[in-house]
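Section handout, structural biology tutorial.
Before the tutorial, make sure you can parse a SMILES string by hand: atoms, branches in parentheses, ring closures as digits. In the record below the ligand is zinc ion, and the chain has 1754 residues. In the tutorial you will relate the predicted structure tokens back to the input. Do not try to memorize them.
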Amino acid sequence: MASELEPEVQAIDRSLLECSAEEIAGKWLQATDLTREVYQHLAHFVPKIYCRGPNPFPQKEDMLAQHVLLGPMEWYLCGEDPAFGFAKLEQANKPSHLCGRVFKVGEPTYSCRDCAVDPTCVLCMECFLGSVHRDHRYRMTTSGGGGFCDCGDTEAWKEGPYCQKHELNTSEIEEEEDPLVHLSEDMIARTYNIFAIMFRYAVEILTWEKENELPGDLEMVEKSDTYYCMLFNDEVHTYEQVIYTLQKAVNCTQKEAIGFATTVDRDGRRSVRYGDFQYCEQAKSVIVRNTSRQTKPLKVQVMHSSIVAHQNFGLKLLSWLGSIIGYSDGLRRILCQVGLQEGPDGENSSLVDRLMLSDSKLWKGARSVYHQLFMSSLLMDLKYKKLFAIRFANNYERLQNDYVTDDHDREFSITDLSVQIFTVPSLARMLITEENLMTIIIKTFMDHLKHRDAQGRFQFERYTALQAFKFRRVQSLILDLKYVLISKPTEWSDELRRKFLEGFDAFLELLKCMQGMDPITRQVGQHIEMEPEWEAAFTLQMKLTHVISMMQDWCALDEKVLIEAYKKCLAVLMHCHSGFTDGEQPITLSICGHSVETIRYCVSQEKVSIHLPVSRLLAGLHVLLSKSEVAYKFPELLPLSELSPPMLIEHPLRCLVLCAQVHAGMWRRNGFSLVNQIYYYHNVKCRREMFDKDIVMLQTGVSMMDPNHFLMIMLSRFELYQIFSTPDYGKRFSSEITHKDIVQQNNTLIEEMLYLIIMLVGERFSPGVGQVNATDEIKREIIHQLSIRPMAHSELVKSLPEDENKETGMESVIEAVASFKKPGLTGRGMYELKSECAKEFNLYFYHFSRAEQSKAEEAQRKLKRQNREDTALPPPVLPPFCPLFASLVNILQSDVMLCIMGTILQWAVEHNGYAWSESMLQRVLHLIGMALQEEKQHLENVMEEHVVTFTFTQKISKPGEAPNNSPSILAMLETLQNAPYLEVHKDMIRWILKTFNAIKKIRESSSTSPVAETEGTIMEESSRDKDKAERKRKAEIARLRREKIMAQMSEMQRHFIDENKELFQQTLELDASTSAVFDNSPVVSDMTLTALGPAQTWVPEQRQFVTCILCQEEQEVKVESRAMVLAAFVQRSTVLSKNRSKFIHDPDKYDPLFMHPDLSCGTHTGSCGHVMHAHCWQRYFDSVQAKEQRRQQRLRLHTSYDVENGEFLCPLCECLSNTVIPLLLPPRNIFNRLNFSDQPNLTQWIRTISLQIKALQVLRKEESTPTTASSKKSETMGELQLPEGFRPDFHPKNPYSESIKEMLTTFGTATYKVGLKVHPNEEDPRVPIMCWSSCAYTIQSIERILSDEDKPLFGPLPCRLDDCLRSLTRFAAAHWTVASLSVVQGHFCKLFASLVPNKNHEDLPCILDIDVFHLLVGLVLAFPALQCQDFSGISLGTGDLHIFHLVTVAHIVQILLTSCTEEDGMDQENSTGEEELAVLALYKTLRQYTGSALKEINSGWHLWRSVKAGIMPFLKCSALFFHYLNGVPSPSELEATGTSHFEHLCHYLSLPNNLICLFQENSEMVNSLIESWCHNSEVKRYLEGQRDAISYPREPNKLIDLPEDYSSLINQASNFSCPKSGGDKSRAPTLCLVCGTLLCSQSYCCQTELEGEDVGACTAHTYSCGSGVGIFLRVRECQVLFLAGKTKGCFYAPPYLDDYGETDQGLRRGNPLHLCKERFKKIQKLWQQHSITEEIGHAQEANQTFVGIDWQHL
Ligand SMILES: [Zn+2]
Ligand SMILES: [Zn+2]
Ligand SMILES: [Zn+2]
Ligand SMILES: [Zn+2]
Ligand SMILES: [Zn+2]
Ligand SMILES: [Zn+2]
Ligand SMILES: [Zn+2]
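Predicted structure of the complex:
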């Protein structure tokens, strides 16, 4: 060992220890050239302290550095002992009221949604808990590291900027007080000196780029030949590549390589070799060679050790400075001053500038150290923050350029500080006005996107990998722009206006480069060859969305700015489209006597682009003109006359036509890229600044032009002009049957066009377009989302656009429109639309996708039917338009519109084939409805003397003019009302006619306008239809009643299925409704029911018939028939364990005969209860196996089950299984052949059994010692004197059929294999033990659950559980028949010897170390192997009873020894009861045997109480066991909850109520046994306090307690560091819910080897904590993780919910989370029921992605 350490642990240089900080400081105080003096000191000592060997020694280095290097500086600075000096400084300091705590990775941060100025303003947990915001709406996130707490920053919070702690410091704050006043002149001078020298030194050495040479003033006289081969981090190479390369290059182990790689990743560099130059150079060349093949090579430098030493000290120095300035704000200010002071080289020469500008050249570790220093100094000093901000803005372009070419993530770049600077409103404003920051950011951004097409637009096509990489990085500049704009100005100065508009100009330049980018042309003939690049353009659009909105928000705040911006935007748009009418002859369109000129342009033939940001920005500004009323106040300042409506609408219209054509299938050959673009165009992330604004632009255009002209241009762009301009075009269809596709295409286009008109008139919920406010807009969005179906909070949030503060405004209105339904045990809370809001539903809401539209339609119609209303979905009443848009409504009553409506209605009336569509008609009806609503509104709101110009009703009553002479629209509607093929729309037509009449009535009453002559027809129509309507109404009522009944039926059905699903899936849903099916209770009085012994109640055997789920054949369960089996799952379990550190080390040698009472490793058997023929199952399993092998070869896929390990899914319920249990009759009845009336008592019985055992032991010895002399054998036999009636040579015949015997072996072997984790071996003597043990353990675990839940012992059990326990018990009892008789006898002897001493077995565990229930089960089930050779007449029942009594006696002794405590105050001295006196006597006897080591207790009452409490679990388990073994029905008292049932249990188990009687009846024998137990040395040791023992009753095992507030878990986890990599923060801290251990999951550092494979910390932990099964909480993800074995796992919903009843897996939403106790209980129950593995199986079957996850690495 010593030799290995030798080069590392060198004796510390004496000269170092002899240094005196005080002396050195004294020397410095005298020095004339302090810099030279200090540098000499550093040059001499630094290389002696740092970098003395291949590996760093941080503690030693830190200690020496403090002593020799930093100590003198502290002395110098304080002028006295720093221990006093710093304390004085701290006292005199007026601490800042800023918190400034720098966040660690994973630390929780909080932002108040009500008070934070923007979402980047956050609080640390401590400040948050002490602030007013904890009662506000807040959001919680985990920090990615970096950033600091904004507590105390008045600019960050609208309210409550201070927490309680930081508020204290604010009382005496005088603004702008200079902190230096608290320092002495001397102190200031000294501090200044030393800071200046040290800061300069650190900057100089960290930015030093030479590898072999130090700065002149640090160079040493003699230079050793010691070098480091330094490996640097990059983001190009993977962990694996680095590890692999290192192993090759420096010849290290994999473990060392992992260590190097981890440090390189964390710190940014690590030396991987130390030695002479040659040696290091060699490693470097190998690394470079190995990594340069595909990518650029890893960065490696061979550096002289002294350089590395100085650099290490440089870093130390920066952290030291950071901590020193913590003592005093004055020191902080001096440091800031030093840092920002310009050096001799002028511009950019300050230390701060130098560091920033070399940022991208520094390694990660150095960067984070100086970033932290900046944060704790420059950003914490209000004066210098401003100066620093200016430096930062000045260098902005260079820093960004460096960042873009660098490959480290942004969090490691100085540019990331922008969020700290730009989000401060005052700084942002100053930087805009003084440094022109907006323009700088935009220009810098533009400079990086140089790739343009001929028109100067961005071109992302054919980007190289490098360009794409740069594009990704440069996007962060948009984020900076967002920060700058995030807080809007309240006051405008002229300078701010000027600079903002300058920035706006730059922004328009940017948008101009996007206007029309990525143009597309329709592909005809063949499919496109390559999908064009489209994502980059959309990424840009998406990132800019908020910025565009914020630009508009800024403009809206100042009228002057708005006017200027509008002008600028218009100018740019005109410039973009200046040539749009060039070169083409205009064409003339005319319909109904209107005509208009337009250009010749077809979307389907020419280039079209989806990107029109300039048009859309103008649309946004136009709305603002209306909203702010600038348009009315200063029309003369606006260039309204320059607006050319046809030019404005042209491009947005093309874009919308493109969407329509895509929908009509005309662009199919253009591939998916187009489909995706159309999708995003409408998507919630983009639509606000894309689709929505196109609609606004069209609305703008239409409101400024003749609607007839607009409609004609629109028809032309939709390529439908021909159809509607040619009167007879409708007749085309019969002749055009051959062009069915074309007709359908046109139909779709007509539908789309009508939809567009509906939107143009109906969408007036943007403030400025219609007379609404922002709340109305959100309300309407929510109403329409909830019209589709009830939704959870998060779904709603996702469907609404978020603003730059990540707010949707939903909370403010949700109460008004929806009611909240709380979640149950699963699922989430839901919002349901209030019924009174249904009337605001608009079927043609413009944000519906097609699927949503049809779902909403269906849902709303259904609702109406349920309310017994008609099913018409008429258009809602709309708010009025703002004046600027008011003329839009005229489109509805324009001639061309009426012509279009008339034409379509005509088609519907003629009803010829597929020439029209129902949706077309539906839209026309909707439009008519809108027009009627509009007219009605106009009439109702009309002012006195005003003429209503909206006269739609009149127009539709007029028949067509000659020569056409078509009927009026109204007439056609009346006709259609009775058309049989329009059943669905009848209600709507009826509604239209009704509304029409209503409007007429209003008109008549006001009689301001002439009434048309249509009344007669309407009246006539209504009387004719009167009785028809009555009949229909009745039919309708009948139909509704039928529907209601059907609904009730299906509801009941659903309930039934749900309940039964529970039955299948829930192991132990102890619900009364799911009571056991097998109830074979005969008519016997309960009081006589006895489960065992000679007095056992005789139960007539019931015949049992079962049906095979595979072949559906019914069969009786019989001894001699073919075996029937239950699918079963055997697993190891630690659920009941009281000692999780214990596990089986060497399973091949492990002896499971005695279970320790800590139950540390049990074997649990479960079953879904589904019965199959053994041979049917065999066939099924073989086929599964074969299929699996084929599949694995083909697909290499995993399944949720492991066939090679015998796993399969139950063919009926898909429950995970790994073996089968045979179904058997009660096995005791088969062997119970002799029944003499005279049975031995306990004493006699023990004697007899002891004799028999002795005989057997002699015989076994005989057999095992090979003797040739047969005479000798018979001799001993003779001596032996076999007990009476005992015939050891007798071998009973196995009564079972071959098939059953085979299954007994199969299940026995499976239990053995799984329970011990060994290879199957049916001959192994431990097989029967494992069978008994599994039976005992399973019963114990079920008893535990029943007790925990306060359920009665024999209450209704689900039948799958009942079946499982019955089969398991009977199987375990029958298994000995297939095992070796002598082996089972051997086990019996040994078990028996643990209670009745036998000199052949002296090394058995002591009575304290045996679980008595396991012992009981083993003894009872092994006993037949002995009893079958006994012909003396002792019955099996007698044996059972005596065994049971004997074990009970032992257990009582166990309890008295371990579990009796006398409680003070509750003393009941007068123990008068029989039991109490008896137990007191017994206790005294025990004390006597233990030599009074047992504590003295005088209260029989207490003792008896302890015994009763302690023995209950055992009695309950025994009752279950004998119940299933012997088939004796349970007494009804035990089927009900309530009192303890102690007496009933005793009676059922054939025990005296006074258990102590057992001791008295056979006192001699029992006393001798007790004496032998008490004399065991372990008992002595226990009583002397040298060891522990389990006490009774055992405490129930629960999952750990979880805190109510999730953030305290996050906080706990953020303090957790990886246990293996020295203080590093763990990336995926994961909490074991079973034992509470925190683990470092999913990371290399904590991988370990398990059975020859690398596994993650969680998997490794499951093996020690849960024998392969684990339940974890992934704290960062807020996700529960279930693991089973190495290959199985799933994620499960966490027990934490937000206020909306939703979980937040991944912590993406950040709503506060609280523990849901019920859900946590459910997880606990899954665990207690051993259902985790099953749950994983179901989850994996349901979700295939779970199958692909590498669970073992978690
Ligand atoms: Zn804080
Ligand atoms: Zn605070
Ligand atoms: Zn608040
Ligand atoms: Zn079958
Ligand atoms: Zn099943
Ligand atoms: Zn654990
Ligand atoms: Zn770790």
